[in-house]
Amino acid sequence: MLQLPTVLVVDGDPAAASEMAKGLDRLGLGTHIVSTAEQALLSLSSRRFDLILCELRLPDLSGLALLRRIERAELETPFVGMAFDADVDDLVQLMRHGAVDFLSRPFRASEVEDAMERAARRQPRTSSLDRGEPMGAMSTGPGGPSHATASISQLHHSPSQSSQTHHTPSRSAGSHPTPSRGAPSLLSPRQAAQQARQERTRGAVPQPPGTAPTAEAPAAPPTIESLLQRLRDGTLELPVIAPVTAEILELLQRPDAGVDQVAELVSKDPSIVAGLLRLANSGRFGTTRGIADIRDACLRIGNRRALAVAQRIAVAGLYDMNLPQLSGIAEAMWLNVDVCALGSRQLSELLGEDDPDAAYVEGLLHNVGELALLRVLAALPDRIAPGAAGLEQVRELLESAHEHFGKAVLKRWRMPARFIRAASAHHSAPPGLEDRTGRLRRLRILLSWTMAVRVGYEYLPGQITPDPAPICAELGLELDAVEELFRAIEPS
Questions:
Q1: Considering the chain, what percentage of its residues have pLDDT values greater than 70?
Q2: Which residue in 460, 466, 369, 375 sits closest to 422, CA to CA?
Q3: Given a cut of 50, is residue 147 above it in pLDDT?
Q4: How far apart are CA 154 and CA 68, in angstroms?
Q5: Cα–Cα distance, 335 to 71 (Å, whole number)
Q6: CB-CB contact of 318 with 410 (8 Å)
Q7: What domains sit in the chain, N to C, each tagged with a CATH number?
Q8: CB 50 within 8 A of CB 23
Q9: Which of 70, 89, 93, 244 could form a disulfide with 268 if both were Cys (CB 3.0 to 4.6 A apart)?
Q10: Is the pLDDT of residue 230 over 60?
Q11: Strand locations in 272-364, DSSP E?
């Protein structure tokens, strides 16, 4: 019997969820309603759904936290977020973690159907439609439910359960388990890389008794000098950003920029348009009148703030890496950048600077050289030592060369001089080349990064920061007040 496509609705408001189910039923869509993220995980562990429609504000976990757990399980079910008051930070995080769409509430039931069609077009791996199976059928392999179902069950276990002994079925030498058809791997990219190394070790040719195994000598780690030489030669691949971002920063530096200029410029990038429209329609502006025009959105947000938000949307995607060895560092680095940018804006306001939004963008871009180096190192995984030694290697390279790389990246992106200086000389400035305004900006950026690390947003062990007390003293700020400011910042 053909089963209806089924939507898992996750909403803490039972009455609203029931009304939503009625609308979806009229479209021929089945629904299963739960009110918490934990209930959603239990449901996902026992059956297959064709779409997850999830409110971002839930009684237990947030919708984003649920999405991250689903992502770690590598479950392929399309995820659509919904909320009355989502802002651009929520939307950026949704897209970074694999959501296929976001619906601003209230919405029509037909918009869910549209989201399902978009999800079907985007699915890169085998789906029930590709296999000729009815939508809504549980994917099973030779041994029962799919691996995706098992992985969600494992995520739902408490720490005490996960620490118990696991019994592995025995198999004959040389045999391998047969994966279920179309099921995603249970392993994260990092775990998959570790398993591959273990398989190579198990498959090594045994040595005669008493003979030391011959180990292949690891390649020498890259040196700072060699990387800088390749940077000068133009043989290193640097990150690429949307061309419109350079024009955005040029316009940001013009205090006379009008709304028509801003709207025309940001309209060149569809992802920026979508983010600004969603922000303009979020609850933070205290109005229910919907906006569908980018010019109206810029008016509601404010011209300069719209330009700063546009830059954030473009930069955030650069930290979304699929790097088995370094993805954790990239994710933590983005949190640091996010806090640094928000803190830089607030410090700029405290210091009475005339352009807090430009200060925000300086915080976003000042450490872009570290991002570039991380991508370079990701292309050389065999030359990074495992464990703590490798992390120390990465830290030393980033600390020593990131300003050189930051300058090269922003020049490649044709960014204005102010932001190139922020990336190339934020720890110290060449003697005699820094005026009072330049020094204030540099110290503000350095203090923002220092405080972000000190309040917990470090991304590499053993990171060394300058003492913030003298910086605060020179800027005329109280250290305790600055620390309180940064502890109150919530990254996306």
A1: 72
A2: 369
A3: no
A4: 14
A5: 18
A6: no
A7: 6-138 (3.40.50.2300), 244-487 (1.10.3210.10)
A8: no
A9: 244
A10: yes
A11: none
